[in-house]
Amino acid sequence: xxxxxxxxxxxxxxxxxxxxxxxxxxxxxxxxxxxxxxxxxxxxxxxxxxxxxxxxxxxxxxxxxxxxxxxxxxxxxxxxxxxxxxxxxxxxxxxxxxxxxxxxxxxxxxxxxxxxxxxxxxxxxxxxxx
Length: 130
Hints:
By secondary structure, the chain is an alpha+beta fold.
């Protein structure tokens, strides 16, 4: 009698697990209108065209030439720190690579170009965490 109850219990648990698995298949699995993430090639193209913020440090008395160089390359100047001779600019990756590869042509104007580090606030925690 006890063996029969155990086998019935195992059977009912097995059926419950089977039905749960069967009915938990996402409804959107066969939906042709669902959008999938872009392919690697598309994401690489998007990253090349994406504007990235850079610090552009220019030589003394070369602010105007540095600004015209940024404009010539299709970038925009978002901020300036003239006391440090730095322009904060947004450029696409191709323009940055052009400056980086043609350093000899621009060394009379530019000291260096580096990515502007992303900054974010720390999360406030409400309690002690160990």
